């Protein structure tokens, strides 16, 4: 897999981009962290964050003109966060004694700083800390420049004096009463390694680089009002800090311009959507400064702006608490390690590949595609954990074996009389259908593998309906589309499967496939674009429903669209049309149609990480107070087993007497197999009048208590596995015996799995006590 | 991976009617091969693996090897 391309995708994710407030703070205070500390009541930590980013934070914290606030997105929902008031509160409640800094030996070079206003002082202090020898030239007899104009309500004279005294205490040499002119400046440029000019009163026009503040190619750097051309203290301090960095780079002879794109204020790509944010009115201070409690309340209003759109919709990303940015990095690491544990495997196999993330992301970042590529790469490199998808792939092999797979043309008119009705009274509502056959297979009904497994009794009715309603012959094709192979990253198996389907299609002279399963629709679109497909639900919507007199009591349902049909808006319409024709009222879910969620089965997550699958189910079913309507068998089965009343369209179109379709339980894994085989046999017998072999009788009559049945489901153990173990044990006596309980314990390796069965014999019955399995093999000596 | 004999001493080999003994047995999965002490029949050597071993330690080692 192309790892550079992968990383590029991840780097497009703006999860880590700063909020607009920080981007518009000229010194980039980490406002979210700052506010979060206040919210926790930790004013000391908040103070440290100010100290880290704001030059002379004890002064600026009191007088900053806060350009950040006018960009705060909260302004549209109750008023901008009072960041500057919060800073004042933090100075009040969280201040710590300045750290004692040991003077660094001054041997890196000599810098003259002209003007002891805010920008000059910032340069002086920043460079002094870095080990430069500084001489300050000030035209008056005191430090601070225009800072003295700010003495008033929040900035106290004694505080300013105290701060300025700290500068003197550092041992920076200061020359007062120095009125400098152009000639004097020239002398200084020769005398010093670099000169900073921050005197607001300088009239000379100077050409400077707007990024580095260097004048021409000289060792002269400028800042303060000459650069900012306004009275803002924070822009002035920021310019000093940036000039100091330029001087440092200049004197260390490294690039002045490298990676400085985001200095000062910049535009952040983060676009916070506040249209759904609850309005909360700004907290007004009750005295001259916020009380601690007021500050905490104000901090709570901050949205902590961050792009989490995909995470908000996806249970998987939230469960692993990971953004696509970080996810891609973990995949990259997972792909690169040769020796050592691939820690991200489990996560990669827990994505349902539902595609919602891409739908939600305004940059169209698709984790579905990333995960698909990754799984394919893992398979290619032989790094895919076998156990993750083994059972699902075996299930697919079953469906494509002779136990289920079947292809038949529609029987001739004479032979297929039962499949349709001649109209007794023309235009009657009760006409089931007409003979539309032509002898050419125009359509091939492909119900997929899960619908026959869950609704074995309805496949024939659906087929009858199709024969009676569409123009041309309708054949039938039973099998599995290959979705499990696709999700498992098994391109080898997928390729074979596609070829097999194509062959049938060609042999049948290229009929249109009628698909009932949303996974089939997805697979056909992706791998078989040359085959024309039609959804079964579109046909019902267009041709009318088979049982017009079966409409139930009106009820409101929420539709859960299948994630495989995300882009198929016609299908979404058809489903709604069918439901309303049947008399149901629809209440849409927030995440529906192209924004639908996965039920938890997609991507084989149901097999690879049951807990993750359960997470999807639990989240989805609580989104609707009504019964849910689905049109994918797996959605239905998962929701019902999660305890939610859920109808499949089939339950509504073919309602059963005395059965509540909404609670119909998922057949067990073994029953799914049996049901598929049964569908094949009954179609052959009833429609094609063919002789069929009855399934071989079970060797043993098993009695299985409910708790063991649950274990079979959770551990992917089939009835036929148990039969095989018992048979082998009974015949060979290779088993263990417990004289106290009278139980036997036996095992048998079938393909890659060793199955263990604990059982007791009672007359001709075998009572199953427990089942489990493992994949590790015992090396028989 | 280990077993404690006392927990399972009631089980015997049905074929040989022998009590099980703890001896070193070779197991392998994917690229990994280990020697572990497991209960087995002293005569026919069939190895006894109970539920907690299969679903506990064994599954853990399998997972670890699959992620290697
Ligand atoms: S929606 Fe998700 S992937 Fe897209 S930018 Fe935001 S966090 Fe990143
Ligand atoms: S809501 Fe908070 S994070 Fe967002 S812009 Fe305003 S202060 Fe910054
Ligand atoms: S494809 Fe679906 S499950 Fe996977 S990350 Fe995207 S939204 Fe989440
Ligand atoms: Zn023995």
TrEMBL record, chain A:
Keyword annotations of the record: 4Fe-4S, Iron, Iron-sulfur, Metal-binding, Oxidoreductase
Domain Dihydroprymidine dehydrogenase residues, every copy: 7-95
Domain of life (superkingdom): Bacteria
Ranges where the Cysteine-rich domain occurs: 443-521, 559-635
Protein name: NAD(P)-binding protein
From TrEMBL, chain B:
Claim: DNA-binding is one of the keywords in the record: yes
GO molecular function: DNA binding
Top-rank lineage group of the source organism: Bacteria
All residue ranges annotated as the DUF7479 domain in the record: 9-68
Keywords annotated in UniProt: DNA-binding
Name recorded for this polypeptide: DNA-binding protein
Organism: Acetobacterium tundrae
């Amino acid at each position: 897999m192309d790892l550079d391309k992968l990383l590029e995708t991840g780097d497009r994710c703006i999860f880590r981009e700063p909020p607009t407030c920080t981007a518009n703070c000229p010194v980039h205070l980490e406002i979210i962290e700052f506010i979060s500390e206040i919210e926790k009541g930790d004013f000391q930590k908040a103070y440290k964050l100010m100290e880290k980013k704001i030059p002379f934070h004890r002064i600026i914290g009191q007088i900053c003109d806060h350009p950040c606030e006018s960009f705060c997105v909260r302004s549209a929902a109750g008023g901008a966060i009072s960041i500057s008031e919060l800073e004042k509160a933090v100075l009040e409640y969280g201040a710590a004694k300045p750290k004692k800094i040991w003077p660094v030996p001054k041997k890196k070079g000599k810098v003259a700083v002209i003007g002891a206003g805010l920008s000059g002082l910032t340069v002086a202090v920043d460079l002094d800390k870095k080990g430069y020898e500084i001489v300050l030239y000030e035209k008056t007899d005191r430090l601070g420049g225009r800072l003295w104009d700010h003495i008033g309500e929040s900035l106290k004279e004694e505080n300013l004096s105290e701060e300025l005294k700290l500068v003197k205490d550092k041992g920076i040499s200061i020359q007062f009463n120095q009125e400098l002119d152009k000639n004097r400046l020239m002398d200084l440029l020769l005398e010093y390694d670099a000169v900073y000019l921050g005197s607001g009163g300088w009239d000379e026009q100077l050409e400077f680089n707007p990024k580095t503040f260097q004048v021409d190619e000289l060792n002269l750097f400028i800042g303060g009002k000459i650069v900012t051309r306004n009275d803002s203290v924070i822009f002035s301090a920021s310019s000093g800090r940036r000039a100091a960095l330029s001087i440092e780079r200049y004197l260390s002879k490294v690039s002045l311009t490298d990676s400085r794109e985001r200095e000062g204020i910049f535009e952040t790509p983060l676009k916070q959507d506040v249209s759904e944010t609850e309005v909360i009115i700004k907290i007004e201070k009750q005295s001259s400064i916020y009380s601690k409690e007021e500050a905490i309340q104000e901090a709570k209003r901050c949205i902590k702006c961050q792009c989490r759109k995909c995470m908000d919709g996806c249970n998987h990303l939230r469960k692993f608490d990971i953004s696509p940015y970080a996810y891609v990095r973990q995949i990259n690491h997972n792909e690169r390690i040769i020796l050592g544990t691939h820690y991200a495997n489990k996560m990669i196999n827990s994505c349902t590949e539902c595609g919602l993330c891409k739908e939600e992301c305004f940059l169209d970042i698709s984790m579905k595609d990333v995960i698909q590529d990754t799984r394919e790469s893992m398979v290619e490199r032989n790094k895919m954990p076998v156990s993750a998808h083994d059972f699902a792939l075996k299930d697919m092999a079953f469906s494509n074996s002779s136990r289920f797979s079947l292809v038949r043309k529609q029987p001739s008119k004479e032979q297929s009389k039962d499949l349709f009705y001649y109209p007794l009274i023309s235009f009657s509502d009760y006409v089931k259908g007409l003979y539309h056959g032509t002898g050419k297979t125009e359509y091939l009904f492909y119900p997929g593998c899960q619908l026959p497994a869950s609704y074995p009794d309805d496949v024939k009715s659906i087929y009858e309906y199709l024969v009676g309603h569409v123009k041309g012959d309708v054949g039938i094709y039973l099998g599995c589309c290959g979705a499990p192979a696709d999700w498992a990253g098994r391109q080898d198996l997928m390729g074979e499967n596609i070829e097999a389907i194509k062959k049938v299609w060609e042999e049948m002279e290229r009929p249109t496939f009628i698909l009932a399963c949303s996974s089939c629709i997805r697979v056909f679109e992706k791998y078989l674009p040359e085959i024309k497909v039609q959804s079964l639900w579109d046909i019902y919507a267009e041709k009318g429903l088979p049982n017009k007199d079966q409409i139930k009591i009106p009820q409101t349902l929420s539709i859960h669209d299948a994630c495989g049909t995300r882009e198929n808006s016609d299908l979404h319409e058809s489903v709604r049309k069918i439901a309303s024709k049947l008399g149901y009222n629809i209440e849409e879910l927030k995440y529906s149609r192209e924004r639908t969620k996965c039920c938890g089965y997609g991507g084989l997550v149901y097999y690879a990480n049951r807990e993750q699958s359960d997470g999807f189910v639990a989240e989805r079913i609580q989104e609707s107070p009504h019964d849910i309507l689905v049109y994918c068998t797996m959605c239905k089965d998962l929701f019902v087993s999660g305890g939610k009343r859920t109808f499949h369209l089939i339950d509504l179109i073919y309602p059963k007497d005395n059965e509540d379709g909404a609670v119909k339980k998922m057949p067990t894994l073994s029953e799914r197999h049996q049901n598929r085989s049964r569908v094949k046999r009954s179609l052959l017998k009833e429609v094609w009048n063919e002789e069929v072999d009855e399934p071989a009788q079970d060797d043993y009559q098993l009695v299985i208590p409910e708790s063991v049945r649950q274990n079979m489901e959770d551990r992917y153990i089939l009835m036929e596995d148990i039969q095989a173990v018992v048979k082998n044990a009974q015949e060979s006596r290779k088993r263990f015996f417990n004289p106290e309980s009278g139980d036997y314990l036996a095992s048998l390796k079938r393909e890659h799995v060793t199955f263990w069965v604990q059982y007791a014999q009672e007359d001709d019955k075998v009572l199953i006590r427990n089942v489990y399995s493992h994949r590790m093999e015992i090396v028989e000596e | 991976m280990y077993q404690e004999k006392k927990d399972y001493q009631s089980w015997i080999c049905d074929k040989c009617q022998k009590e099980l003994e703890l001896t070193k047995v070779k197991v392998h999965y994917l690229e990994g091969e280990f020697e572990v002490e497991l209960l087995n029949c002293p005569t026919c050597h069939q190895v006894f693996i109970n539920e907690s071993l299969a679903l506990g330690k064994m599954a853990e080692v399998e997972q670890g090897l699959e992620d290697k």
